[in-house]
Amino acid sequence: MQPLSELDRIHIRDLLVRGIVGINPDERKNRQDILINATLWADTRAAGRSDDIADTVNYRTVAKALIAHVESGQPFLVEKLAADLVRLCLEADPRVQAVELTVEKPGAVRFARSVGLTIFRTRDEVLGKG
After folding, report:
1. Class of domain 4-127
2. Which residues form the Dihydroneopterin aldolase/epimerase domain (predicted)?
């Protein structure tokens, strides 16, 4: 793996999806807004030279995978959802070497705009070396 300082960052910001996440009974039956922000570390130099989508991480493909997972999954914890979404980002393209991902539940706590979690994981940590 290249050092992170040598990699570029692809951002998916403010992806708003409705899904089931939470431990309370109403959270288990009623979909709620889930806000996702992801930063993918990858080398985009080849795409910068070629101007060809095949030479880079397709953020649309990644975003679609995130949406599909949130809409179909029903984890109890935001921590589980975040871990699953990071794995999806890493599995989407072998060029993704690390992911920082935030999952927020807007309005989940009274008087707070949002509550959430941010995690950072590397490819080796999640998928193993090899």
Report:
1. alpha beta
2. 10-121
